[in-house]
Structure formats: structure tokens, C-alpha cells
Design a protein that fits this description.
Layout lengths: L10 E3 L13 E9 L6 H12 L7 E4 L7 E6 L1 H8 L10 E2 L3 E5 H6 L8 H16 L51
Parallel strand pairs: 2-3, 2-4, 4-6
Antiparallel strand pairs: 1-2, 5-6
Helix pairs in contact: 1-4
């Protein structure tokens, strides 16, 4: 898919709502935005975001809404809008960021991924969402704990794995309980 360097420069909120995963613990309200003019189906992007955020290996339980108040905005952005939204951070048009109000997801990375993920675009997309939303929940960058180990999700895996293995999840070892209830984790 060809991703334009620049689109409209304006976000549109993706209409729709989705409940949090079952379980206990805090619920984080969020909404999804897509820059107008990008070649992605906004509803499909929003569904991918919701699946990632509500996976039991994720940070918390997330409720998608289409109006505020929200704790997090997840915004699919052209490289040019990413550069503008991420200032003063320098993304070079290729990185994503948290800008204090939204997780700015670079559409080029969303479409192409990075070599470190060995062509597993789905896993890389989980990482992008988990990492940038993690910033919105107050988590900071972490280093690789050692060669061959899983990279913490807050490692800057888009830049390098530093001899770690790729990992898209905050809690990669968590599994659903037999009762269907999920872990109680507060962001």
C-alpha cells in the first residue's frame, strides 16, 4: 500500500463505541482518530486498536468512545502530520510518538512495519499501539534486559532491539483465566 507523505493535516474521530474486555479493574476511556486522506479504512484501524488495547496481555481494560472526556486519543497520521504533532521530538517522518494528549501512530510504520519484526506486521502493529498508549498511561522507555530476552514493550523497538527479541505486549506471559476473567491491572 502506498502511504502519502502528507494528507489533509486534519483528524476525523472514528465514530463508534466498543466495550472494555470483561474483568475487574479500572477502565480507560479512549477514542480513535484518522487523518483525512489516508488510504486506510478508519473502522478497520479502530477495530485493530481496540483488539490490541483489550488483549489480556495489554495494559488495562479500554472502552472506546467517540467523544470526550477521554484519557487517550490514538491517531493514525501521515509522516508530515506526525512530524508536526510530535514536536519537539524529531521523528524524521518515520517514528511514532506520544505528544501529551495523543498516541500519534505514523501511517508509514503502520503500513510497512520494521525489519526487526521479521515481516510480522500484525505483531508490530500491536507493539506500536501498546508502546505509544503506554506513554499515555505514564510508562517510560526501558532498556533491553539482556541478549536473547524479550524486549519490554516500552523499549524503542522501532529503532532497535539491542539484541533483545521483539515483543508487542506489556504482559506477554499473561493468559486468560479458565473462568474467562482477566487479571486486575491498573494503569
Amino acid at each position: 500500500m502506498r502511504v502519502p507523505y502528507a494528507a489533509s493535516g486534519e483528524y476525523a474521530v472514528v465514530p463508534g463505541k466498543a466495550p472494555p474486555r470483561p474483568g475487574r479493574g479500572a477502565v480507560v476511556r479512549y477514542l480513535v482518530e484518522v487523518e483525512r486522506g489516508l488510504p486506510f479504512d478508519p473502522a478497520e484501524f479502530a477495530a485493530d486498536v481496540h483488539r490490541t488495547l483489550n488483549d489480556v496481555r495489554g495494559w488495562a481494560r479500554f472502552q472506546r468512545v467517540d467523544r470526550g472526556p477521554v484519557r487517550v486519543r490514538v491517531a493514525l497520521s501521515s509522516p508530515r502530520l506526525t512530524i508536526r504533532q510530535c514536536l519537539p521530538l524529531r521523528t524524521g517522518g518515520s517514528l511514532s510518538c506520544w505528544n501529551g494528549t495523543r498516541s500519534v501512530i505514523n501511517a508509514l510504520r503502520w503500513a510497512k512495519g520494521v525489519p526487526q519484526y521479521g515481516g510480522d506486521l500484525t505483531a508490530y502493529r500491536h507493539y506500536l499501539i501498546s508502546h505509544e498508549v503506554g506513554h499515555g498511561l505514564g510508562h517510560h522507555h526501558r532498556s533491553c534486559p539482556g541478549p536473547g530476552r524479550l524486549a519490554p514493550v516500552m523499549t524503542q523497538q522501532s529503532k532497535s532491539l539491542n539484541r533483545c527479541r521483539p515483543n508487542p505486549w506489556p504482559f506477554p506471559d499473561r493468559k486468560p483465566r479458565e473462568s474467562g476473567e482477566t487479571e486486575d491491572r491498573r494503569p
